[in-house]
From TrEMBL:
<dbReference type="InterPro" id="IPR003657">
    <property type="entry name" value="WRKY_dom"/>
</dbReference>
<keyword id="KW-0804">Transcription</keyword>
<protein>
    <recommendedName>
        <fullName>WRKY domain-containing protein</fullName>
    </recommendedName>
</protein>
<keyword id="KW-0238">DNA-binding</keyword>
<keyword id="KW-0539">Nucleus</keyword>
<dbReference type="GO" id="GO:0003700">
    <property type="term" value="F:DNA-binding transcription factor activity"/>
</dbReference>
<dbReference type="InterPro" id="IPR036576">
    <property type="entry name" value="WRKY_dom_sf"/>
</dbReference>
<dbReference type="GO" id="GO:0043565">
    <property type="term" value="F:sequence-specific DNA binding"/>
</dbReference>
<feature type="domain" description="WRKY">
    <location>
        <begin position="99"/>
        <end position="164"/>
    </location>
</feature>
<dbReference type="Pfam" id="PF03106">
    <property type="entry name" value="WRKY"/>
</dbReference>
<dbReference type="InterPro" id="IPR044810">
    <property type="entry name" value="WRKY_plant"/>
</dbReference>
<keyword id="KW-0805">Transcription regulation</keyword>
<dbReference type="GO" id="GO:0005634">
    <property type="term" value="C:nucleus"/>
</dbReference>
Length: 183
DNA sequence: CGAGTTTGACCAGCGC
DNA sequence: GCGCTGGTCAAACTCG
């Protein structure tokens, strides 16, 4: 994922129907850049939702078990992910976003679980997981190797819960509706 | 004190 | 089989 996707024909402003609840930057110019699914996304039209292509991917990660093994000194030390199998590729969408900020405020809460230097890039790749306890969506964030002003954000999986930020902003309205509907 | 981040280590997959 | 690389874990640390 080092190269920009071939001849991107368009810049798009991500509408809310694309499940990016709040474009982090005004008139954010976002290019669909997934090396995997960007063609299907482009062809899917405005009703496309991330991950709709494969609803089964809301299931748990392939293997969540970790090996913690005893060391000779008596301490325990994890041995990384055990039993990892050849993984079926979940729906992945990547964006090229021109932004000084690495992290797009997409309305969901993310917890960083790793950072890694990647080959052919001076910029490290950061790994994030959705903090929602039943949600296993992941995203990777990396600056483009050739243009540091471009942030490549890759989403993997589907959120199985509403956007918290959106719900927060809607909650006063919902309360008002509930109140009014009680009459 | 809980939630989130940093970071070094570990593991699987892949190419040679 | 070996080395490289990407992805993940979890202890230690930071922050509010």
């Amino acid at each position: 994922m080092d190269e920009l996707p071939p001849p991107l024909t368009q810049n798009i402003n991500v509408p809310i129907s694309y499940s990016l609840p709040s474009p982090p930057h005004d008139l954010m110019q976002t290019q669909i850049a997934s090396d995997i699914d960007w063609v299907s996304l482009l062809s899917a039209g405005p009703n496309f939702k991330f991950g709709n292509q494969n609803p089964s991917s809301t299931s748990k990660p392939l293997t969540a078990t970790n090996g913690a093994v005893g060391l000779e000194n008596g301490s325990t030390k994890h041995k990384g992910r055990v039993g990892r199998t050849k993984k079926t590729i979940p729906p992945r969408i990547a964006f090229h976003t021109k932004s000084p900020d690495d992290i797009l405020d997409d309305g969901f809460r993310w917890r960083k679980y790793g950072q890694k230097a990647v080959k052919n890039s001076i910029h490290p790749r950061s790994y994030y997981r959705c903090t929602h306890h039943t949600c296993y969506v992941k995203k990777q964030i990396q600056r483009h190797s050739k243009d540091a002003s471009i942030v490549v954000t890759t989403y993997e999986g589907i959120h199985n819960h509403p956007c918290e930020q959106l719900m927060e902003s809607l909650s006063p309205l919902l309360r008002q509706l509930q109140f009014l509907s009680s009459f």
